[in-house]
Amino acid sequence: RRLSKDYEYVTQTSETMIRVAMIHLMVRRLARLTRF
Q1: What is the pTM of this model?
Q2: What integer pLDDT is reported at residue 34 of this predicted model?
Q3: CA of 1: how far to CAs of 6, 8, 10, 11, 14, in Å?
């Protein structure tokens, strides 16, 4: 039971990390476009 809980937590954090990375890239792209 404990292992499955830890695994769920790890998968959730990895998903959030990917989302944060995607948002970061999008923000950087938008900033680059608005600069010019």
Answers
A1: 0.57
A2: 85
A3: 9, 11, 15, 16, 20
> Dihedral angle at the C-alpha atoms of 12, 15, 17, 23, nearest 10 degrees?
-140
What would the two tokens of residue 36 be?
């010019």
Distance, in Å, from the CA atom of 29 to the CA atom of 22, rounded to the nearest integer, reads: 11
Question: What length does the chain have?
Answer: 36
The total of structural domains in the chain comes to 1
Domain range for 27 is: 1-36
Give the tens place of pLDDT for each residue, 1-36.
Answer: 577 777 787 888 999 999 999 999 999 999 998 876
